[in-house]
């Protein structure tokens, strides 16, 4: 899956481009506990037949003489997790600052290191993030790419997604060169290279790798720039993601309210964080059919953003999706995100939550809800629920099988609670994306060299930035 270092670090081998027929065996998974996330199919012990990259049948006592049989006994099969907000380019910088504040993260990563990334570093970071995602059962990532330092940087990020085999929504963002000039009141409009990518690189909205627009909105730019950027994205027929409700600045700007009042708020938008967005703004979001992404682990780890808005979103009528955000702060798996999101809810119930959550009668969620947030709601937020997010016949075979008979999972009395409370990447036995088997028998296929490249990329970046590596 990886490429070795070359003497020309800005050249990315893009030979592994759209080839959707790599490992598409005809496969029949038998006797698994199916958590389909499909309202009509529900949950059952049964079988899943995969052919030509799609789920063709779900039911009991299926048979197919041409299929390879996988024994699902003692396992849960569910749609692959969908991460609706991850800055993949930071994959080689993971686990650097779990105690960082938001400003420390910005100073160290976006401002300090981001300007020194060359395309090879972006490719390596994205590939490392993709492989870690796949290993932990994440089959779709919405890559919030604010490392668009040049067209070559964006092309390198996209090439990594094709190469890894993951399903990716590439959210084209802004550069991390002159990072401070692109955020918090910036008067710069979105980079025009998004037109080239839309027309020449990611024009097929049915492909495994597709394009969205990561816009700054009125919170990180100005009202005028936000309007022009939104109109650009809609001209190109792209869904939009936007970071809002970031700490005190977000509370002051009330970006969702600004968008509603200007007539720009619509169902093609996914709002990320919303930590300090008001309850009224969340109701506006719901009324327009927009979606939300909660980065529960990051938001409880990183002072300066505010707290997860999960329960307040539910009160407003929005079932959110879940996301990792940045691996520099938190683990890149969805198990940790689900647990942290649940942990914050329990603080609300204990009366120890932040001031915005001290409202009587906030609705609650449970482990089954979290699995829904991490699968079908993620697909809806990314605009791809027509092809993934549930074990529905006709959808792409993006699925995972999780061992319920491992020591840390037994006796698995409640499968959803067991996965959320005890699951980790080592319990993920099988991973498929569009029918391609990318992990089987607990072993990720390929990619070992990527992690050596990640270490070399990290060292080069710290040296270029004049920053000492942590001891």
TrEMBL record:
The keyword Hydrolase applies. The keyword Hydrolase applies. InterPro entries: Amidohydro-rel, Metal-dep_hydrolase_composite, Metal_Hydrolase, MTA/SAH_deaminase. It holds the Pfam family Amidohydro_1. Keywords: Hydrolase. Residues 77-437 form the Amidohydrolase-related domain. Residues 1-18 have a biased composition (Polar residues). Residues 1-23 are annotated as: Disordered. NCBIfam families: PRK08204.1. This is Amidohydrolase family protein. It comes from Streptomyces iconiensis. The lineage of its organism: Bacteria, Bacillati, Actinomycetota, Actinomycetes, Kitasatosporales.
């Amino acid at each position: 899956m990886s490429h070795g270092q070359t003497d020309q670090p800005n050249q990315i081998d893009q030979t592994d481009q759209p080839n959707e027929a790599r490992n598409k065996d005809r496969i029949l998974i038998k006797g698994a506990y199916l958590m389909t996330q499909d309202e009509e199919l529900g949950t059952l012990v049964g079988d899943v037949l995969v052919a030509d990259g799609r789920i063709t049948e779900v039911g009991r006592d299926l048979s197919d003489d041409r299929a390879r049989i996988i024994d699902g006994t003692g396992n849960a099969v569910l749609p692959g997790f969908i991460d609706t907000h991850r800055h993949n380019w930071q994959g080689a910088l993971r686990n650097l600052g779990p105690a960082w504040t938001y400003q420390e993260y910005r100073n160290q990563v976006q401002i300090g290191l981001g300007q020194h990334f060359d395309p090879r570093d972006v490719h390596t970071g994205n590939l490392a993030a993709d492989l870690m995602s796949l290993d932990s059962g994440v089959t779709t990532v919405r890559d919030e790419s604010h490392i668009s330092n040049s067209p070559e940087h964006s092309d390198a990020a996209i090439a990594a997604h094709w190469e890894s085999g993951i399903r990716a929504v590439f959210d084209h963002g802004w550069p991390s060169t002159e990072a401070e000039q692109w955020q918090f009141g910036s008067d710069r409009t979105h980079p025009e290279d998004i037109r080239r990518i839309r027309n020449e690189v990611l024009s097929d909205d049915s492909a495994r790798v597709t394009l969205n627009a990561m816009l700054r909105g009125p919170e990180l730019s100005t009202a005028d720039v936000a309007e022009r950027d939104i109109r650009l994205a809609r001209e190109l027929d792209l869904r939009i993601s936007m970071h809002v409700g970031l700490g005190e600045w977000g509370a002051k700007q009330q970006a969702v309210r600004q968008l509603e009042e200007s007539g720009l708020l619509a169902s093609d938008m996914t709002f990320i964080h919303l930590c300090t967005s008001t309850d009224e703004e969340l109701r506006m979001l719901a009324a327009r059919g927009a979606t939300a992404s909660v980065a529960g682990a990051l938001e409880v780890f990183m002072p300066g953003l505010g707290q997860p808005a999960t329960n307040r979103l539910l009160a407003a009528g929005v079932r959110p999706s879940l996301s990792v955000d940045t691996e520099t702060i938190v683990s890149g798996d969805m198990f940790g995100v689900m647990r942290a999101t649940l942990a914050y809810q329990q603080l609300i119930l204990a009366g120890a939550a932040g001031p915005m959550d001290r409202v009587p009668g906030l609705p609650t969620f449970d482990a089954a809800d979290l699995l829904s947030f991490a699968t079908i709601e993620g697909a809806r937020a990314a605009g791809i629920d027509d092809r993934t997010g549930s074990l529905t016949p006709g959808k792409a075979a993006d699925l995972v099988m999780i061992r319920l008979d491992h020591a840390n999972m037994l006796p698995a009395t409640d499968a959803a609670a067991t996965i959320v409370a005890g699951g980790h990447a080592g319990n993920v036995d099988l991973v498929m994306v569009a029918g391609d088997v990318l992990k089987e028998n607990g072993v990720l296929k390929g990619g070992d060299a990527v992690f050596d490249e990640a270490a070399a990329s990290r060292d080069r970046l710290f040296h270029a930035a004049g920053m000492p590596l942590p001891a």
